[in-house]
């Protein structure tokens, strides 16, 4: 499941950042990709051709084109097109993007085109030639273009298709915005001809240092690799095998300072080979479970968290998550809510987000969008899911902040689904045995003479380290807020349980004078108070990530007074205004903190 090119810490490489203005062209019927009969597209439609249409038209009066990727409108990249123009708000289909860039050739240097993310499928062409294709909207991909590039002007063209078909992950209906486009940074990346493609170093669950280095190129085998951890006197030296791989398994340096939310210490780590060096900043911590407890550096930790979509604060977000935008949201969690944990929902967020969490001392859950219903019987879908997890894991396995890989959200129990997810869990454990595996599960509810009883009855639990559940009593369904504190939860004591979601909509500024009504801030705040009373009665609860930090765009939410395309379960509004429930959570976590020490 390892991507062909990992390009660990790609931003530290010699790169050309392709962010900025790109020309674009809509192509609802995909005529630039295929003809009406499914054959190769008509040449007058092929947006990726290595030509200047205006010049061609001048040269030959009989020339005929139905596109022009030089004189078209432009769009700022990275960006989701849905927010850029009102007519693209609900556009689902292909948009072509093109940009030119200059290259000075250098001997013995390889070149790649790398995208941090494009939603959902990307067809990539360089100088008129196909470089590759990728599906999955939230993980990076790269293609080698060493033999396609030329001296001087080069041209890159990408068809981004936001349509989700029967094999897509997620499927076609979600509770978040469609957000098509090149949503994270695209780059040209240069490397030596044999380079360090993949390098990681972490502590395993027992505090031993483990890692791996992979070289790519002609001279990959039998090279000495040295790893330096600045400020320690540890010397690690390993040699690559015939596949260019070297594994690390050694004692941690004496006095190694452990990374934690209270003291997020990062070491400068340098991986050195004869042909290439790679610099990383890495925190070292252990994460494991003991019975119902989660142990961070061998001490029980309560995950005081919140869920978050990848959407910046503002009236018209476009998934353009700059460093400042991420820091603003993360500070609301760490400083505002007194939290130590974020559920990055419902898909892998950017590499930058997990790097900033490393720096700020925030624990993370990262998941792929195996969400609601997908085709669990289809082996290609399973392979897609494994590949996506791989792209996330190989990108982020140096991040101390990430402690949980989650494989699914609210997938109804059924044989096909169980087999699919058990298989996926095994694959994740093989790829990364040092972290914990979870999934957001549905619960079983029974009304008995004792009252409302909730239990987790899911065969998947045996494959998981942490049981996470989403619960919405008091918002969805008929339960009253007064019922919540009395709900009886049955949880196993051999595994930690966390509440991966609970929440209620409220529109900031809407207040109830008398009895709280749904969508008022008072109702949401009371919902939080009562749900927290319920949570305090759940034996062995090890953490929570209420739904959600900020109101977010969702085409499913169209109440004309309160929603208008926004899911309003945020503790802050889309423009960052804190609702009453924000203070309820902040107080709760403050109290939790003071009882933990
Ligand atoms: C859920 C989903 C989440 C939704 C949320 C809601 O259970 O996991 O994606 O947005 O409920 O607001 O209903």
Structure, briefly:
The protein is an alpha/beta fold and about 600 residues long. Helices cover about 15% and strands about 30% of the residues. The strands form 8 sheets. The chain has an 8-stranded parallel beta barrel with strand order 21-22-23-24-25-28-30-31, surrounded by 4 helices. The chain has a 6-stranded antiparallel sheet with strand order 3-2-4-9-6-7, with no helix packed on it.
Summary keywords:
597 residues, alpha/beta, Jelly Rolls, Immunoglobulin-like, TIM Barrel, eight-stranded parallel β-barrel, six-stranded antiparallel sheet, 17% helix, binds (2S,3S,4S,5R)-3,4,5-trihydroxy-6-oxo-oxane-2-carboxylic acid
Provide an overview of this structure.
Residues 288-565 form the Glycoside hydrolase family 2 catalytic domain. Residues 195-285 form the Glycoside hydrolase family 2 immunoglobulin-like beta-sandwich domain. One of its GO terms (molecular function) is carbohydrate binding. 48% of the residues are buried. Strand 16 (267-272) and strand 17 form a beta hairpin. The mean pLDDT is 97. Helix 2 runs parallel beside helix 3, helix 4 (379-396) packs parallel to helix 5 and helix 7 runs parallel beside helix 8. Helix content is 17%, strand content 31%. The chain starts with 13 loop residues before the first strand and ends with a helix. Strands 21-22-23-24-25-28-30-31 form an eight-stranded parallel barrel, surrounded by four helices. The chain is an alpha/beta fold. The protein folds into three domains: 10-192, Sandwich (Jelly Rolls), CATH 2.60.120.260; 208-285, Immunoglobulins (Immunoglobulin-like, Sandwich); 296-596, TIM Barrel (Alpha-Beta Barrel), CATH 3.20.20.80. Residues 175, 346, 409-410, 470, 501, 547, 567, 569 line the site of (2S,3S,4S,5R)-3,4,5-trihydroxy-6-oxo-oxane-2-carboxylic acid. The site of (2S,3S,4S,5R)-3,4,5-trihydroxy-6-oxo-oxane-2-carboxylic acid (GCB) has 9 residues, from loops.
């Amino acid at each position: 499941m390892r991507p062909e090119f990992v390009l660990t810490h790609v931003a530290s490489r010699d790169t050309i950042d392709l962010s900025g203005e790109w020309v674009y062209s809509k192509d609802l019927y995909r005529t630039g990709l295929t003809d009406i009969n499914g054959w190769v597209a008509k040449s007058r439609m092929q947006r990726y051709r290595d030509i200047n249409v205006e010049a061609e038209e001048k040269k030959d009066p009989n020339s005929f084109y139905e596109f022009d990727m030089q004189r078209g409108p432009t769009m700022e990249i990275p960006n989701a097109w849905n927010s850029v123009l009102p007519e693209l708000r609900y556009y689902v289909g292909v948009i072509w993007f093109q940009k030119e860039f200059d290259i000075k050739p250098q001997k013995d240097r390889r070149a790649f085109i790398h995208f941090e993310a494009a939603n959902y499928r990307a067809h990539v062409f360089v100088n008129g030639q196909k470089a590759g294709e990728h599906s999955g909207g939230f993980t990076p991909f790269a293609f080698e273009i060493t033999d396609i590039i030329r001296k001087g002007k080069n041209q890159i063209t990408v068809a981004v298709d936001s349509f989700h078909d029967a094999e897509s992950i997620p499927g076609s209906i979600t509770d978040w915005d469609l957000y098509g486009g090149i949503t994270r940074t695209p780059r040209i990346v240069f490397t030596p001809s044999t380079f360090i493609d993949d390098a990681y170093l972490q502590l395993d669950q027992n505090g031993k240092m483990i890692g791996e280095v992979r070289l790519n190129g002609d001279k990959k085998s039998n090279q000495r690799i040295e790893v330096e951890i600045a400020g320690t006197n540890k010397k690690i030296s390993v040699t690559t095998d015939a596949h260019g791989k070297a594994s690390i398994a050694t004692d941690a340096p004496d006095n190694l300072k452990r990374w934690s939310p209270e003291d997020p210490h990062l070491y400068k780590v340098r991986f050195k080979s004869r042909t290439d060096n790679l610099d990383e900043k890495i925190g070292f911590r252990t994460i494991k479970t003991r019975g119902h407890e989660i142990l961070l550096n061998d001490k029980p930790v309560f995950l005081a968290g919140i869920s978050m979509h990848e959407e910046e604060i503002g009236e018209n977000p476009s998934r353009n998550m700059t460093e400042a935008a991420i820091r603003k949201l993360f500070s609301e969690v760490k400083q505002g809510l007194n939290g130590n944990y974020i559920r990055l929902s419902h898909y892998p967020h950017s590499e930058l987000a997990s790097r900033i969490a490393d720096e700020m001392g925030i624990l993370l859950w990262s998941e792929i969008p195996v969400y609601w219903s997908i085709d669990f019987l289809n082996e290609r879908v399973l392979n897609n899911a494994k590949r996506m997890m791989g792209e996330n894991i190989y990108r982020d396995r140096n991040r101390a902040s990430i402690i949980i890989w989650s494989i699914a959200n609210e997938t109804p129990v059924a044989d096909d689904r169980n087999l699919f997810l058990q298989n996926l869990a095994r694959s994740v454990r093989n790829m990364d045995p040092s972290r914990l595996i979870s999934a957001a599960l549905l619960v079983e509810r029974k009304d008995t003479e004792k009252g409302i009883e909730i239990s987790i009855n899911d065969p998947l639990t045996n494959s998981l380290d942490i049981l996470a559940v989403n619960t919405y009593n008091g918002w969805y369904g008929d339960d009253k807020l007064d019922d919540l504190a009395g709900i009886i939860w049955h949880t196993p004591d051999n595994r930690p349980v966390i509440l991966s979601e609970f929440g209620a909509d409220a529109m900031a500024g809407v207040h109830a004078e008398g009895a709280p009504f749904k969508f008022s801030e008072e109702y949401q705040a009371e919902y939080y108070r009562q749900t927290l009373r319920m949570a305090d009665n759940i034996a062995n609860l090890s953490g929570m990530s209420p739904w959600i930090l900020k109101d977010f765009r969702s085409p499913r939410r169209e109440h004309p007074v309160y929603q208008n395309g926004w899911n309003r379960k945020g503790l802050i509004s889309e423009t960052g205004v804190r609702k009453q429930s924000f203070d309820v959570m902040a107080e709760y976590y403050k109290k939790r903190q003071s009882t933990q020490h």
